[in-house]
């Protein structure tokens, strides 16, 4: 199982961008059952917030609900929050939101966390996959 960050959801439905195609390919692989991907409720909420700033709220809600139905979402626990706060404290490049997402991925034994955010690279024992690299295609093909 891989965990997806907000960046993947945003780029997949966004305008022209170098990451749009790889993010769409990743989501298509999940939809076709070739990979098992998931995310958290918080990621979908953040997606809706970002999308509503660029498009209408109705569009943001429609897409957020689509993502909600496409994934079996992970729920962050108080233990995840505590571990995330430790990661946040130890890694200055990592924001609090991303630290908790990393903790969820680690605590659930995710094979990887896929994100365009390079701050995840600093987390020990977390396999971070950048959608801009061939590693994503190798991961999908594995």
Structural class: alpha/beta
Q: What is the total tally of β strands?
A: 4
Low-confidence stretches: none
Report strand order across the widest sheet: 2-1-3-4
| Mass-distribution shape | globular
What's the mean pLDDT score? 96
Helix content: 55-70%
Number of helical segments with 4 or more residues:
7
Describe the structure.
The protein is of the alpha/beta class and 142 residues long. The chain contains seven helices and four strands; from the N terminus they run E-H-H-E-H-H-H-H-E-E-H. The two termini are 12 Å apart.
Brief rundown of the structure:
The chain is built from seven helices and four strands.
Describe the structure using short key phrases:
142 residues, alpha/beta, four-stranded parallel β-sheet, 7 helices, 4 strands, globular
List the helices and strands and how they pair.
Layout (H helix, E strand, L loop, with lengths): L1 E3 L1 H8 L6 H12 L5 E2 L2 H14 L2 H14 L7 H13 L5 H12 L4 E3 L13 E2 L4 H8 L1
Parallel strand pairs: 1-2, 1-3, 3-4
Helix pairs in contact: 1-2, 1-3, 3-4, 5-6
